[in-house]
């Protein structure tokens, strides 16, 4: 016969009511965590069935804290106290003191070690002396992992490769400092009226009968400890003393399946508590639910992290329908990062009725828009402190942040103004002038004391505006409250300690402390589907259990927190080691499933940076020996790729396209050479760019785009020859003018980047690199020019227009082309058109047919462009035999590919060959124009390389 399974807390409630009746109110009930109290209360109410006086409920920390009149020091108070003492000790040793920023990560580890030493009643002096001995004997410190070694190495500034010896001495000195640090730290806290959690445990454990006043509160009843597993040495000692004084009762949630079998790690701590420490379990001798009750297990193997949450709807469907199973279902997130995907999956309404969902896990502030705003404020403040400027990307983030509540009009106005100026950084004063939220948000922090108060002002301003506009969401309201509470708490702690701190460090602390905030989402802890982390399930039972993220490395965890106490010494002193984590994880899973009928394990089978893709070893163990009924499911997400559809834009039936093309024929629009080459290499791009006019949004970026380098170079060459062109250009004159190049480059840079040639500014980082690149390019061009001297310049950056006629639907049509010719020279009677190129253009071409073949691989845009210029210039200036020259700065000096003339199969495009080519070029150009205006479709080129850099790729389905 299958056994009836009652929740553990119901059994505890029944036993306590039977034992104490109406004396229950004199008892104290102590748990590991807060959550079980509500459940136990409910069981009491169900059993007693009438109003009753409740016993007191405590978590173990709260209970122990009642034993002392001291307050418990929070982390920041501990940090500042430790930091002060550490620097005093360094000063006594005549060593350089350490900055708070550097000490912070070190302090976190030291404090956690101190706490563990206290909770496990270890003699700190002896432990650190052993550590020092080991370090002295073992000069290599090989008990530290390479990461820890690296980590510590950063704390000693005098460290360098050659000073390994020095490093060891610093290590050993650090261990020598520890006992003193430990002792003074506790003394100093005590002087201020504070203790750490660990030291409360230590004081209580020394001899609990000294705390008669505390214990006598419960003289008429008992102190009842429910559902404990791994005990620190202090807890074990306190529990034993309470049991001996006949004050304590213990209810352990154990199952003989793993308790009586020494091989089962889940029972490791319970065996220790019962057999070694000698605590008495009020629930001993119960039959094993693991063995006798029915357990059905479904294992879901899922590909992908978030995909794990996506199958919840399948598993929970009957819970949505059936409100009978009130509070009997739990979704446990072994991997807490799955909270958001889980909330996005479980619906709020099913078949018209609302779904009860209670999320006990905190919704992390760091994933909310409020944290986004706070974080933005903190980073903007750091920027203001450093340079009195805020980067454009942070100003943009501020303007577009949902909580700043700026009108679209105001946003656009400011963003357009900033885009115009192309400034990567915005002056702090300008931002303050905008008043309103700007004034509050960008107010400069004058003193470390004001970090928190200024931030509170910003939050207060935003909060008032949101609540006046009645646009405040419930979860945001709770997050605001929690953030403001935390900031007020920090303000109290900081006020005595941060007078001399650096503002950036205080900002860092605020950032760190706010990252840790989470707000429990609302719901009823006793009803509906419960969503919780594994730690929160302690003491609770559910008929249906779903565990997400059941992966090796997540459960059990694969690393014990950071500590400077090596494993060997931890073992000697009985401090927690990695195996403890395995035993604790196993126990938490086993006790949750021992009373559950329907168990679902879901794990991610894909290997990525967060998981191994392996199911937890606990699952493997259960499969191997539990005798439960296992069912396996694999969720394979089908990856479907859409059939490639060729996108063609039809011209004939589309009035808008016809009208726009007609504008070219009516000369209301003029065709540029780059528009034409875009059409030739990928016709559909021409449609998106020149007809639909879909443009790339303008951005401000500190990186100078390749086309901007080209524009700067063109400007410099224009400035360079502007004065010289009045007379014949000779080698001497070029050499003389070379002296002014740096000035000209800066002027050109400012003109292109900031539309302001005469700007006076200091160039930084990347800007200096760009100036240097342009300088190199200018010199390559000038070396080429010197080799051509003497010559005469006819024009610079000249705009020219010309008409080209072509046949269309049986009649002659024509269009106008225009362009800017970089330079026109005359040398030895030959007129040359010169085009500068900074890209990877080539001089070689196959033949004229291939130049215009949109589906071919031999389009040479630069040649089409220069021949177009040549054609236009010949028309414009009534000249013949004009010769195109291309200055490709990257390859001009190259002996094989260099030069300035185009080549086809070793024939250089000049003289007779050029004159032969020109009419062929014109004929092909006319054919292409007939196609542009007459073909039925705009379509994509068949050669991918022809649109490799197209911004419209996604639009034509490539």
TrEMBL record:
<feature type="domain" description="PD-(D/E)XK endonuclease-like">
    <location>
        <begin position="671"/>
        <end position="876"/>
    </location>
</feature>
<dbReference type="InterPro" id="IPR038726">
    <property type="entry name" value="PDDEXK_AddAB-type"/>
</dbReference>
<protein>
    <recommendedName>
        <fullName>PD-(D/E)XK endonuclease-like domain-containing protein</fullName>
    </recommendedName>
</protein>
<dbReference type="InterPro" id="IPR011335">
    <property type="entry name" value="Restrct_endonuc-II-like"/>
</dbReference>
<dbReference type="InterPro" id="IPR027417">
    <property type="entry name" value="P-loop_NTPase"/>
</dbReference>
<dbReference type="Pfam" id="PF12705">
    <property type="entry name" value="PDDEXK_1"/>
</dbReference>
<dbReference type="InterPro" id="IPR011604">
    <property type="entry name" value="PDDEXK-like_dom_sf"/>
</dbReference>
């Amino acid at each position: 016969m299958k056994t009836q399974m009652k929740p553990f807390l119901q059994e505890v409630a029944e036993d306590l009511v039977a034992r104490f009746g109406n004396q229950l109110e004199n008892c104290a009930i102590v748990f590991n965590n807060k959550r079980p109290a509500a459940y136990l209360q409910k069981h009491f109410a169900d059993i007693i069935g009438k109003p009753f006086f409740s016993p007191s409920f405590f978590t173990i920390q709260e209970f122990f804290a009642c034993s002392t009149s001291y307050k418990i020091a929070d982390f920041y108070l501990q940090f500042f106290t430790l930091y002060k003492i550490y620097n005093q000790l360094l000063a006594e040793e005549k060593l350089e003191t350490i900055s708070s920023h550097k000490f912070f990560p070190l302090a976190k580890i030291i404090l956690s070690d101190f706490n563990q030493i206290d909770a496990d009643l270890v003699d700190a002096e002896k432990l650190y002396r052993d550590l020092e001995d080991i370090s002295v004997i073992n000069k290599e410190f090989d008990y530290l992992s390479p990461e820890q070694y690296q980590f510590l190495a950063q704390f000693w500034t005098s460290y360098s490769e050659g000073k390994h010896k020095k490093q060891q001495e610093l290590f050993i000195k650090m261990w020598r400092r520890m006992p003193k640090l430990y002792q003074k730290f506790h003394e100093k806290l005590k002087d201020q009226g504070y203790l750490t959690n660990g030291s409360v445990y230590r004081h209580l454990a020394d001899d609990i009968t000294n705390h008669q006043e505390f214990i006598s509160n419960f003289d008429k009843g008992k102190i009842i400890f429910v559902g404990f597993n791994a005990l620190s040495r202090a807890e074990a000692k306190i529990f034993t003393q309470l049991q001996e004084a006949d004050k304590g009762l213990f209810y352990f949630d154990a199952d003989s399946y793993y308790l009586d079998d020494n091989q089962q790690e889940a029972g490791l701590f319970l065996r220790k508590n019962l057999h070694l420490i000698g605590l008495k379990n009020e629930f001993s001798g119960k039959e094993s639910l693991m063995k006798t009750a029915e357990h059905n297990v479904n294992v879901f193997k899922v590909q992908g992290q978030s995909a794990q949450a996506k199958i919840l709807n399948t598993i929970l469907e009957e819970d949505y329908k059936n409100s009978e199973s009130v509070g009997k279902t739990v979704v446990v997130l072994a991997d807490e990062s799955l909270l958001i995907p889980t909330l996005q999956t479980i619906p709020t309404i099913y078949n018209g009725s609302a779904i009860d969902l209670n999320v006990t896990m905190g919704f992390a502030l760091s994933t909310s828009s409020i944290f986004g705003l706070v974080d933005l404020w903190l980073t903007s403040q750091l920027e203001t402190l450093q340079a009195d400027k805020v980067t454009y990307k942070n100003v943009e983030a501020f303007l577009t942040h949902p909580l700043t509540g700026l009108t679209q009009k105001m946003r656009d106005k400011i963003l357009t103004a900033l885009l115009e100026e192309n400034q990567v950084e915005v002056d702090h004063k300008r931002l303050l002038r905008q008043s309103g939220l700007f004034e509050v948000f960008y107010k400069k922090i004058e003193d470390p004391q004001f970090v928190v108060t200024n931030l509170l002002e910003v939050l207060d301003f935003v909060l008032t505006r949101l609540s006046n506009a009645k646009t405040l969401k419930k979860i945001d309201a709770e997050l605001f409250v929690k953030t403001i509470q935390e900031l007020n708490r920090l303000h109290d702690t900081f006020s005595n300690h941060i007078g001399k701190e650096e503002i950036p460090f205080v900002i860092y602390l605020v950032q760190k402390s706010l990252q840790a905030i989470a707000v429990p989402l609302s719901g009823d802890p006793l009803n509906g589907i419960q969503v919780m982390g594994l730690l929160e399930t302690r003491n609770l039972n559910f008929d249906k259990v779903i565990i997400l993220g059941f992966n090796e490395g997540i459960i059990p965890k694969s690393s014990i927190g950071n500590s400077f106490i090596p494993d060997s010494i931890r073992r000697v002193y009985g401090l927690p080691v990695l195996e403890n984590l395995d035993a604790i994880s196993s126990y938490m899973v086993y006790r949750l499933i021992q009373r559950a009928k329907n168990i679902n394990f879901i794990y991610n089978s894909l290997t990525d940076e967060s998981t191994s893709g392996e199911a937890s070893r606990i699952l493997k163990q259960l499969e191997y020996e539990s005798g439960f009924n296992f069912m396996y499911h694999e969720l394979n997400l089908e990856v479907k790729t859409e059939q490639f559809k060729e996108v063609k834009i039809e011209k004939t039936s589309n009035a808008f396209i016809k009208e726009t093309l007609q504008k070219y024929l009516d000369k209301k629009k003029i065709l540029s050479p780059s528009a034409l080459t875009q059409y030739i290499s990928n016709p559909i791009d021409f449609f998106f760019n020149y007809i639909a006019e879909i443009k790339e949004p303008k951005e401000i970026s500190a990186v100078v785009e390749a086309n901007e380098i080209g524009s700067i170079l063109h400007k410099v060459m224009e400035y360079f020859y502007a004065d010289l062109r009045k007379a014949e250009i000779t080698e001497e004159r070029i050499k003389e003018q070379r002296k002014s190049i740096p000035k000209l480059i800066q002027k050109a840079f400012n003109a292109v980047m900031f539309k302001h040639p005469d700007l006076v500014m200091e160039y930084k980082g990347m800007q200096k690199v760009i100036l240097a690149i342009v300088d190199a390019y200018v010199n390559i061009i000038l070396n080429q020019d010197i080799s051509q001297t003497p010559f005469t310049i006819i024009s610079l950056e000249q705009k020219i227009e010309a008409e080209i006629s072509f046949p269309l639907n049986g009649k002659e049509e024509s269009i106008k082309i225009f362009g800017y010719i970089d330079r026109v020279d005359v040398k030895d009677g030959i007129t040359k058109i010169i085009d500068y190129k900074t890209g990877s253009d080539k001089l070689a071409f196959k033949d004229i047919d291939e130049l215009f073949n949109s589906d071919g691989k031999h389009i040479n845009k630069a040649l089409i462009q220069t021949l177009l210029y040549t054609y236009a210039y010949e028309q414009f200036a009534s000249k013949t035999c004009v010769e195109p020259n291309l200055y490709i700065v990257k390859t001009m000096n190259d002996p094989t590919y260099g030069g300035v003339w185009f080549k086809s199969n070793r024939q250089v495009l000049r003289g007779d060959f050029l004159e032969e080519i020109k009419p062929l070029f014109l004929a092909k150009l006319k054919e292409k124009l007939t196609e542009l205006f007459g073909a039925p479709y705009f379509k994509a080129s068949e050669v991918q390389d022809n649109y490799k850099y197209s911004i419209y790729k996604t639009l034509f389905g490539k």
